[in-house]
Specification:
487 residues; alpha/beta; Rossmann fold; 2 domains; six-stranded mixed sheet; 14 helices; 17 strands; binds zinc ion
């Protein structure tokens, strides 16, 4: 058997003013022109390639590895950049033919100039090259829009099941096994999806979502059901099929897949009240946090999560805390290459007046002018996420009044793990509060050290007011914008 593997993706916040071009791919992950991602340490979106290579090689199969490109979520992708990467992938595939299986790791919410459904475009072109009898499989982030074009072009699609996304390698292994069985003629995967007509955030460690995900897993691998994905959708992608879907892959029985997808989709609908997390204002959250006495209370600044295409330089929460005179705070990661540059010029140990954050756009709020002490500068800083290591660029630990610690960095990314702070020398256990710019990926790493975890709906780029997102392209009725989108 011969297996072709590649990765091309990003999560496009179509409302973001940040363009997604070569620089963002280069900075996040870009292996091409014959350079293989699997010769390097796994990162979140290259991990599936590592899994697919080792699965194939352990069976003595041939592997052809193409592009591995992923961009930190931002705005619409530049057309020539998307087409350049896509066409490189397709040229490599043509050159690798005949292949038995093509496996593509994508996000599922990528939009480029002229392409509202990049994944549908990629899969349909891959299908055109390999022909109808070879197996095409795709792995997707669960914050994806599963379109009709994607389902028609691929044999099997599998999304992550967990949010935080700690299961990318597990889903990669499942997709490999599913596609290997199909290529061997043991199964004939067919897919059906059900539109839940909902826009929401479902955090999988919490009930009732936890039990629902466990149930999906318990239904797989029997009664002809090969795989079930709950595609949550990406709220800030204004695309025609933005809403959450259930996707079922069955062995040759499309009607069965469709019936199960509908049953499960109705369960998601039925638990809408229990899974809707009412947005909480930052003043309420800070008041609650100040009432805890052990600490640290970890506060997620969900609206400024770079992982959702937000700038990661918003100042709203820190400004509110400073105004209230709160102390004992660590906060990060502020994407501010200019401020980092000034800190590098001044050097460790320097005291200076520094303008921090508030630079990218309206959603960043106003910059803060603060007197800071430069405690530590770390080049090529990194943070952990699951089993992967992820770059921060240059990170700087700043102190205000000896009691508020800020981390600024040069590579825009959300906070995944406490080591984004501790590798600089910050002792989080001594803090009363830790503010992290992240919606949920921080949870796996921070929950074990937190007295409490609170989710804060700061003003900002991706504030969780789902009924008020100014969609233009997505015109279907959806909850919570309307009470009953099925009516
Ligand atoms: Zn995601």
């Amino acid at each position: 058997m011969r297996v072709f593997i590649a990765c091309l993706g990003t999560e496009t916040n179509t409302f973001s003013p940040l363009p997604t071009g070569w620089e963002t791919f280069r900075e996040t992950m870009l292996f091409h022109n014959g350079e293989k991602a699997t010769n390097h340490e796994p990162m979140l979106f290259s991990e599936p390639l590592h899994v697919w290579r080792s699965e194939a090689e352990s069976r003595g199969w041939d592997v052809v590895e193409s592009v591995a490109a992923f961009a930190q979520p931002a705005g619409v992708c530049i057309k020539s950049v998307y087409e350049g990467l896509r066409d490189e992938l397709l040229r490599d595939l043509e050159a690798a033919m005949p292949v038995d299986i093509a496996l593509i790791n994508m996000h599922g919410a990528m939009v480029a100039d002229g392409y509202l459904d990049c994944e549908g475009d990629i899969l349909q072109r891959v299908r055109a090259i390999v022909g109808p009898d070879r197996v095409v499989g795709g792995e997707l982030d669960l914050h994806c829009s599963i379109t009709g074009e994607m389902v028609r072009a691929a044999d099997a699609l599998i999304t992550f099941k967990e949010y935080p996304h700690i299961d990318a390698p597990h889903r990669a292994k499942e997709l490999f096994a599913l596609c290997a069985d199909a290529a061997a003629g043991k199964t004939k995967p067919v897919m059906a999806r059900y539109d839940c007509r909902m826009i929401n955030t479902w955090r999988t460690p919490f009930e009732p979502t936890r039990s629902f995900v466990d149930k999906l897993q318990s239904l797989e691998g029997k009664d002809g059901i090969l795989s079930i994905s709950f595609a949550h959708g990406f709220p800030w992608g204004d695309v025609p099929e933005a809403s959450a879907k259930i996707l079922v892959v069955s062995d040759g029985d499309e009607a069965k897949a469709a019936a199960l997808a509908e049953t499960l989709g109705k369960e998601v609908w039925a638990m809408r009240a229990a899974t809707a997390m009412a947005p909480r204002d930052m003043n309420d959250i800070l008041e609650e946090a100040a009432g805890h006495n052990k600490g640290p209370v970890v506060i997620a600044d969900t609206s400024d999560n770079a992982g959702g295409g937000a700038p990661s330089d918003a100042t709203f929460l820190l400004a509110a805390a400073l105004e209230k005179g709160l102390t004992g705070i660590a906060t990060g990661l502020y994407w501010d290459p200019t401020a980092v540059r000034f800190c590098e010029e001044a050097g460790e140990g320097a005291n200076l007046d520094l303008r921090i954050g508030g630079k990218v756009g309206k959603a960043s709020g106003m910059p803060l002018d603060l007197r800071v002490h430069v405690k530590k500068i770390l080049h090529n800083a990194e943070q952990t996420f699951g089993t992967s290591t992820n770059p921060l660029g240059t990170a700087v630990w700043l102190q205000i009044d000896g009691d508020i610690d800020l981390v600024l960095n040069t590579q825009r990314t959300q906070v995944f793990h406490p080591d984004a702070f501790t590798k600089l020398g910050i002792d989080l256990s001594a803090k009363r509060m830790v503010f992290v710019k992240s919606s949920q990926h921080f949870y796996a790493g921070f929950n074990p050290i937190a007295e409490a975890v609170l989710y804060c709906a700061t003003p900002g780029a991706i504030a969780p007011h789902y009924g008020a997102i100014p969609f233009k392209t997505f015109t279907q009725p959806y909850w919570p914008k309307v009470e009953n989108p099925f009516g």
